[in-house]
Amino acid sequence: METQKTSFWKSGHTPTLFSAFLYFDMSFMVWVMLGPLAVVIAADYPMDPMQKAQLVALPILGGSILRLVLGALTDYIGPKLTAQIGMLLTLVPLIIGWQFVQSLDQLYVVAILLGVAGASFAAALPLAGQWYPKEHQGLAMGIAGAGNSGTVLATLFANRIAQHFGSWEIVFGLAIIPISVVFVLFTLFARNSPHRPAPKKLSQYASVLRQGDAWAFCLFYAVTFGGFIGLANYLTIFFNAQYGLSAVRAADFTTLCVIAGSFFRPLGGFLSDRLGGIKMLTVLYGGAGVMFALIATMPPLAMVIVILFVGMMCLGAGNGAVFQLVPQRFGNELGLMTGIVGAAGGLGGYALPMLLGKLYQVTGSYTPGFIGLSVIVLIALGLLTVMQMKWRTTWASAAPIAPLPGRLES
């Protein structure tokens, strides 16, 4: 007789789930602050297109590197303590950016140090995911991962605060307040799961990276998350340069697009639990590829916002779909794999602004950059199709025959 499954809200630890969300949310807000502020900062430190791209890409690069560090710490000292250390370290670039920056080079240093906030991914998702069974992983990881909605707070308020106070530096100072509040709440309510896997040896890290599936997931997430975070950081520059919008208005339109990517992530995980992560990812890659090809035509502003909204929605939901699959394939290495896959997503997010900025500087147009992005998404779709055929064979014995939530086959 089939056993009755526990409901989602009774199967894990809700205070920890929402603590992980808050930690991720505020960290993301800090991580992407330079994206919307780049146009304002350029008034103090004039930059060419590549310098602007580098400024908004460096936090993503720092996050990508430090996710590996926080991923390892998550395995060894636990996700809760790792997250607490991460929040304390996040205060360092905020204080420097608020009080001590006097040149563009110093701002680049702050930018890469902001990566510690982006590395929150490697602690927040294992903290939440380790509490939940496989049939609820998509929704649990989706809710915790929806903390990328912190991007919305940055794009909506950063330029307004800078305009109100007449200083972009004050944005860094004020960001210390929510990080400190969340640190206290997190300390009080978050708990490590009693089912946390034992720490991995260094040789096991190498063993995971020798598996082709790990590299496939890295590419999948480099496209979905990398596309989302790269565009979230760069769209204010894009709207300002291509459509001549002011810093505040450009950031407002960026906010609309970021909302789609942020709030559709849990839906992507939820639907993947029920329809299958591979099937969802196939549809979402196809949709994103078409949307970015349309953007390459540089349509009118109203139309490009709608197209970007749909494209970012596909990427955001795709993040949820990827992380519905990761715990099923690498359940015993979840902390390690979230760090590795998250790092790959960060590298994708670093490369995207650099690609758009370089091609714009060389050609004077964003068309080649968005054509390139569309092609990359469709390449990921092709790889997914190939991997699906492999997984049908290698995971067939583990996948349920009936169409149950969270199945691995399409």
Automatic annotation (TrEMBL):
Cellular localization per UniProt: Cell membrane
Domain of life: Bacteria
Transmembrane segments: 21-43, 55-74, 81-101, 107-127, 139-158, 170-193, 214-237, 276-295, 301-322, 334-356, 368-387
Keyword Transport: yes
InterPro entries attached to this UniProt entry: MFS (IPR011701), MFS_dom (IPR020846), MFS_trans_sf (IPR036259), NO3_transporter (IPR044772)
CDD domains: MFS_NRT2_like (cd17341)
PROSITE patterns: MFS
Residue ranges of domain Major facilitator superfamily (MFS) profile in the record: 15-392
Membrane topology (UniProt): Multi-pass membrane protein
Main location group: membrane
Keywords in alphabetical order: Membrane, Nitrate assimilation, Transmembrane, Transmembrane helix, Transport
Family: Belongs to the major facilitator superfamily. Nitrate/nitrite porter (TC 2.A.1.8) family.
Protein name in the entry: Nitrate transporter
Name of the encoding gene: nasA
